[in-house]
Amino acid sequence: MHNIPKVAAIHDMSGIGRCSMTVIMPIMSALGCQVCPLPTALLSSHSEFKDFYFFDFTDHMEEYFNMWEKNNATFDCVYSGFIGSEKQIDIMEDIIGRIRKVNNPLIVVDPVMGDHGVIYQTYTKEMVEKMNTLVSVADIITPNLTEAEILLGEKYTCEKINIEKLKQYLKRLCDMGPSVSVITGVITEDDENINGCYDKINDKFYKVPFDYVNKRYPGTGDLFTSLFLGYLLQGKILPEAMEYASIFVSKAVSATYEAKTPGSEGVLFEKIMKELYVEKKIFNYTQI
Question: What dihedral angle (degrees, nearest 10) is formed by the CA atoms of 158, 163, 165, 167?
């Protein structure tokens, strides 16, 4: 791997609202990665604002990547998120295959499909089915609980889940193809707020606690996965990368809650960027 890992980030770009590319680029750059954006869509703001401009980039993605290929671009990682159309999934699978012919990049898929038991309006049944195919070519996936249950064809678990069922979900997700599955934002039956993980190669499950704030902010999933991936590319082991990411997200959410800014603006991660470089001595992750 290069001294500076190069990441092909295939996400939407929302001008206002701190999500997707406007989170990924500053966070991963600060963690020592070169982020190369390949947009799926351009938005004036994310879709939780009442009025926003949306430009579908589907018809331009292939030509955009062709120019990267002509210039002999290579990547250490491909990281995908929000997908705007069924066709984009086919394009992304093709791009991943072409990049894999050159080297062996880490493929990370954040299957952005829904939250709190609701599938996003932009997702069709066909897109959900195709997402399963994209997940099958990934090395790491990072769904929230809603997205995990969509992928597995399960009914939404109302907020709380027991650890054994969580472990079943994580293992079944890895059975779809990935080596590592992470489910974020879980509340257990014991009222723990955790992120859960399964490492298929080493057959180990982990849980990492986080501090819960009872207010929803868009973009926290993008923030977590960008942190998690950035720390992995720094060389941290899997559960440590999860813990570093969980701690930073918790601090960012707390700082935002205290600032009382509108939830639609996302989390004020800029206020605590120095926390990215705080080395932990004692870890709270647990093998389960």
Answer: 130
Taking CA atoms, 100 is separated from 65, 105, 280, in Å, by: 14, 6, 34
pLDDT (0 to 100) of residue 84: 82
What gap in Å lies between CA 288 and CA 269, rounded to an integer?
A: 30
Model pLDDT, residue 2: 54
| Cβ atoms within 10 Å, residue 84 | 21
Which residues does the chain have with pLDDT short of 70? 1-2
Q: How far is CA 5 from CA 98, 152, 161, 236, in A?
A: 18, 32, 36, 14
- The answer to whether the CB of 1 falls within 8 A of the CB of 74 is no
Specify whether the CB–CB gap between 77 and 108 falls below 8 A: yes
For position 20, what pLDDT does the model report?
95
> For the chain, first and last CA: distance in Å?
31
| Tokens encoding 69 | 């290929």
CA 67 and chain centroid, separation: 26
Smallest CA-to-CA distance from 36 within 4, 59, 58, 82 is with: 4
Task: For residues 231 and 253, give the distance between their C-alpha atoms in angstroms, rounded to a whole number.
Answer: 19
